[in-house]
Amino acid sequence: MNEVLVMIFTGIGAAFVLLAAIGIVRMPDFYLRMSVTTKAATLGVGLILIGAALYFSNVSVSSRVIAIILFLLLTAPIGAHMIGRTSYFIGTKLWDKSVINELKDQYDEETHELYSEDQSGNENVKNQENKPSE
Amino acid sequence: MNVHDFLYYIILPILAVSVVLVFIRFFKGPSIVDRVIALDLLITIGIAIITVYSIITGQSTFLDIAMLLALIAFLSTIAFSYYLEKSKKNE
């Protein structure tokens, strides 16, 4: 019973890792590739680690496995955010069939600050507020 | 088919094929950030291979190295992104 569970978990995990590898070759854009590496590969490796914990069924191995999965779940989104932000500043092109770029004109090129609100929208609101008083 | 044969003849070849596919992107990648995420994915698949080997050999000590790799992969990605952003700003 336990061996069957180990086979199922490692099989699904290896399938997800293979999907991540195919995705990083086939995806047309850096940003799509980045989403593949952070989601599918983390899930696949986590499933394989759970399979190892089921195989040993041991407190020390299980705690190590939980620590590794916790590190992966904590560090994968932060690393993906940092490298995605850097690639946006460097000027990596989006896929030419991408529909929308919501970050366009939202970043200050010099200081790398992010404007959380639409600046042109703010000016419109101010103009509308000023018009009735005039 | 016991679990050792399953891991040795099915899981390890799948992981090896995925390592080869990631290496294709690593050598082909148009920009340097593609290579950085390919390196990150290589280390993540390395953690999986170490785990499978620790099941096959029955040595749970290998998982310590997997934990170390999980931390170092994060540090390398952060260092690369920090360096690339700073070098772009100084130009």
Shape of chain A: elongated
Largest interface: A-B, 51 and 49 residues
Order of helices and strands of chain B: HHH
Strand elements of chain B, count = 0
Structure, described:
By secondary structure, chain A is mostly helical. Helix content of chain A is 74%, strand content 0%. Chain A contains four helices and no strands. In chain A, helix 1 runs antiparallel to helix 2 and helix 2 runs antiparallel to helix 3. Chain A is elongated, with a radius of gyration of 23 Å. The relative contact order of chain A is 0.10. Chain B is mostly helical and 91 residues long. Helix content of chain B is 89%, strand content 0%. The longest helix of chain B is centred in the C-terminal third of the chain and has 29 residues. The N and C termini of chain B lie far apart (60 Å). The mean pLDDT of chain B is 89. At the A-B interface, helix 1, helix 2 and helix 3 of A face helix 1, helix 2 and helix 3 of B.
Q: Which structural traits does this protein have?
A:
heterodimer; A: 134 residues; mainly alpha; 4 helices; elongated; B: 91 residues; 3 helices; flat
Short summary:
With 134 residues, chain A is mainly α. Chain A has helices at 2-26, 30-56, 59-90, 119-133.
Give the helix/strand layout:
The complex is a heterodimer of chains A (134) and B (91).
Chain A: H1 2-26, H2 30-56, H3 59-90, H4 119-133
Chain B: H1 3-28, H2 32-57, H3 62-90
